[in-house]
Write a structure and sequence with these properties.
Residues 9-68 form the DNA/RNA-binding protein Alba-like domain. Residues 70-91 are annotated as: Disordered. GO terms for molecular function: RNA binding. There is one protein chain. By secondary structure, this protein is of the alpha+beta class. It has a single domain (7-89), classed as 2-Layer Sandwich (Translation Initiation Factor IF3), CATH 3.30.110. Helix content is 29%, strand content 38%. Helix 1 crosses helix 2 (44-56).
């Protein structure tokens, strides 16, 4: 796996958080040096939980947290809140 571009993990509110944690662990094991975890709307809390689970296990260090309010065509309202967590593998 190329470590040049970050691996994007898009968390949704309907899936188990541990599925995202396992997915991210596999990407780190394959050599990914940077992971971006993001969530929209009600999935923001789950995205933060995924990052905290990885951080508490000593697997990642949070590099940047970014929030935004974006225009999404499929959304029920005009704007949807978004969070992105950029992190690198703690070696």
């Amino acid at each position: 796996m190329s470590s040049d571009s970050p691996v994007n993990v898009r968390v949704s509110a309907g899936k188990r958080k541990y599925a995202y944690v396992d997915f991210t662990k596999h990407r780190l094991h394959e050599g990914a040096s940077e992971i971006v975890v993001s969530g929209l709307g009600s999935a923001i809390a789950d995205a933060v939980s995924v990052v905290e689970l990885l951080k508490n296990q000593g697997l990642v260090v949070v590099k940047k947290i970014r929030t935004s309010r974006g225009d999404v065509e499929e959304a029920r309202s005009n704007y949807v809140d978004k969070i992105e967590n950029h992190r690198r593998q703690d070696r």
